[in-house]
Amino acid sequence: MPRSTSSSVGIAEKASFASPLRDPDKLMRSTRLGAFHQTRLSFARALIRRMRREEWQIQRQYMDIGIDNVGEALYLVNTPQGIYSFLAFAHSIDPRKRTDRAIAEVWDYTFVLCEGHVDESQKSRLCKNLPHQDAGRYETTELVFSRANKSGRLFDDVVSSLAKGKEPAKASIADIGYLIRTTAVFANGKFGIADYSRLRHRSGLPHSFEAQMLAVYLIRQFSIDTVHHLSEKLAPQTAIKLSSTTQRLVGVGNATGLGMAPFLVEHPKLFNAWVSCRETAIARVTSLPKTDKAKWQRFMDLLQRAIRHIEQWKTSDERQKNRLITLAHELRGLNSAISSEKYLLGPDSDYPWKKLMHEIAISFSPEAEEMLASLILEPHGVIVDALEECLDAKETEILRPEQAISQLLQTIEDTYSWAVKFDFAGSNSHHYFWYRSAVKSEPRLGISGSDIGQHREMIVGIAREIASLHSDLIHLSQAERETTSIGMFLLRNSKHRATVERVQTLSKYPYAEIRDNLLASDCLPVDLLRCKLAFFGATKFDPKSDRWVRVVLFQGAPVVEDLFDADYDCDDWLFASDSEV
Amino acid sequence: MHISFNELESNYKAAFLAVGLSLGEAVDATRMLVWLDAMGASANLRVPSSLSRLESVLTPRPTIRRYDKSAVTLDCGGASILAIGSATIDIGLAEHKIKGINRLNIVNVCDIEFTAGLARILLVRDCNTILSWSDYAGSSDNKLYLQDKKVQGNIPILNGYTEEIFFGDVEVDFMQKPSQEGEWSNSEQYEVSSIGPYFDGITVDPVRWRLVEFYAKKMLIPESEKSRIEGAGIGADED
Prior knowledge:
The complex is a heterodimer. Chain A is of the alpha+beta class. Chain A has 25 helices and eleven strands. Chain A has helices at 24-27, 30-33, 43-53, 120-129, 155-163, 170-176, 196-201, 210-234, 244-249, 260-266, 268-286, 293-311, 318-337, 340-345, 352-360, 366-377, 381-384, 405-415, 417-420, 462-474, 478-483, 486-492, 497-506, 525-536, 560-563; strands at 57-65, 71-79, 82-90, 109-115, 142-150, 178-186, 251-256, 432-437, 443-447, 539-543, 549-553. In chain B, 41% of the residues lie in helices and 21% in strands. Chain B has helices at residues 5-18, 23-38, 43-56, 81-99, 118-124, 183-194, 206-216, 225-230, and strands spanning 2-3, 63-67, 72-75, 103-110, 128-135, 142-147, 150-153, 167-176, 202-203, 220-221. Residues 145-162 and 177-197 of chain B have low confidence and may be disordered.
């Protein structure tokens, strides 16, 4: 695959696009972000491409797990940058203690991804610590640790079915999407493991969430291997393995809570990089003056696949159910309304992707418009995939104390008008506050004036901070605004220090801020969780409340065996369904 | 006890917020201390007593004692350099860039032993600067040069457990106008090439570290009932 360097992509291209980048005022709203889907730039997709490109070798060294679900397994990942070990422990637990909640103390499986080989002394230490997860301690050669529980709906049934020599129903595997479900994936220095700086500069896994994605991919392979292993243990004479196509339908479940929302607020330059790359990719494709038959046919095939995927996207959440009904209706309508004659040969053959995105999809629901964005990127890997090199950012914010107050005020009014417009006098505008819970230090939402702890709140309500700064600045005299430096202003108003630094730093980053009031009574954090998970490559978003969501990762992705098969297309798994993997 | 830099950073920041610093001040104080720890200066040993003082004593705001073409002198009224250090640097930088004043004197600050941490703030801004300080006990050769993004000279020794409060004065000489663009990438490259411990975490004294955690944990709040019953993993009747 042709690859350009990172210096050749990005915002600098903006001027040359026939089709402009989309307006951040439209895009950076929670409801829109909460309609994002996997794209070929999602981290899971980029990881699989890298594995194939660099010919990574993944080998199971041993799996020693009894039918009582106690034991361990070890995988080695051999890459040009080095070797990684993935160690899994299986535990027999009381089913009543099996929970996705953060307060859980036992899990069916615990995992760790390490740099290099694991020797006996490290294994012995991990054996003592890993089953306790965040109550244990780890070392800097350990990159990621995680835990997972069996799916009560699927795991035992699949083992039992395979043991009897019967392939489980493909449709139920496609619908549920996973055999085991992770409840947390820890990295970036948590509990003593490798810091982000080590991941980025020394681990060989430098990209956003790349180490975590590798761990989850290995968890997925482990889950497939485990049902094979256990069924064979149960009935060595009759046991069979899942067919290749069924194996690919197995993803990894994940339950995600509020913690992901503050992440997006606290890493604005990184978030800007993610959205900018996605939008740049869309602009590249919509700027193409023509298409060809092969690309158009590929798009139409993917559209069909997406419709089938939506049919298999189950949710109990009423809001999401309604969105899926509309989404399916709009995509079916699109499927019958567009024809290759019109877009390849007819009067609409100029800028066909732009017409799709900016003329047809503009009337769609956000779910459909964003799904269409994912679909049009798919046939265009050659001009899109190099953007994955731009998905990282240097995050430091730099304060410029020499700036005059009047200049800062102008910046706020130019780039933060969305924040200043909120009326923080009304109680609905600061209905919530965010805090870290004493249990597990996880971010939580409290109700202002009712729940305790507001004086210790996390700064997630950026709109309120900006509005407060703006209010203090406009009350200064015109002379003060012109002659006083920000440095002098902050000497007297230290509470605004972080906000000033943020405004000065981020004014050139159009997609850095979520342009909503995240303290308002109508705030739905689940939208932000979905946005981040879409960048990971998750699918089948199933909100369980406005504060947590269940998803599937790597469903449809190639299994390890496929990576070694030169004839298998490892990059064709967007919106997988049981009819096409 | 070995901890990661993420743990170091998140606990410092939470501890500073808990003792009353604003978010911006807490972030800058954290930058100072993490850098010192990364350079092997063991700031973590000394910081618990500073946190205790910051929590119990109101931090005065610096005032301008003297201002002329050659220097700006800020009187900090005994405030901790962890709380007001970056604000004072802001004044120096602003006056240097706007009016070409090349000297900033920061007088009457406590926790003077953390002064080298200001180098972290200056490095991020790519300043070509000499930072020097003296404490009232008489030592006067604590000097750190920041020239062409290379640190020369010595990092102050913070070994030992003494609870003495060190007051002193700081001088910052801005030797030329800092560059306007690309500052962070250069500084980060400097960091990556020069500071090995950033990759491996650091070893801390467990007793002292628990004191830092004690303050950091003050930022944690008992979960509300609504939050408890609506959090991740709750209410799923199928798994």
